[in-house]
Amino acid sequence: MQYVIFPLVLLLALLVSCVRIAMEYERGVLFRFGRFKAIRGPGLYLIYPFGIDRVVTVELRINTVSAEQQETITRDSVTIKVNAVLWYKIVDPEKSVIAVDDAASAVYQIALTSLRNIIGQHDLDEVLQNRDKINALLREGIAPSTTAWGIEIDRFEMKDVELPEAMQQVMAMQAEAIREKRARIIKAEAELEASVKLSAAAEKMAFNPAALELRRMQMIAEVGAENNSTTVLMIPSDFVTLSQSLADYLKERKNTAPESKLP
Q: What dotted CATH number matches 63-163?
């Protein structure tokens, strides 16, 4: 009986060693005698024992890689530190195993190289203001190489850009100057518009003296509504005209008075 049980146990163990299970998001790259045979999975599949078949399991889910901080120089010679995040997935398990050794490390290194190269081709203002454009260039820069490895780049984006402290102060001064410029332009435009309106109002009041008197009375009502102790005396414009005429008359008389005494 023992001679029968032992071969059965050995056969069962051999059968179990031939069984492989791949998850829904996994694929098995099968090599037979060192040559690529097929892609297995997902689910249950069998392989030949005794080293005849060898299986390399590949995961098809999207992988997220946080690129380490890179210190690089922009085209306008400004040193910045950039953090980026890479999302990629394997779309061709055969190429990812045969065409490249350690696909994850290869993608990571080419991503860092592409990040430094793309940043070096753009000015600081472009890096800060056109992030969508820079991110698109990052994806396009590494896509040809990764496609040959059976890897698809889903996203590659800058996460953070760290500037030197001196550059931050300069940019703050620049932003303050721009805001001050805008404020002055808005104030000048408001004054120009107000002057146009005042000129139009003055022209209308010049042809209608009653309108000027009504405006004067309205100003008195506005001042009185503030409940202050200031006394405002409103003089009609006729008095101003009369005063000017009287001054001109006295000046003319003064200039002609000495001439009348001559023989």
A: 3.30.479.30
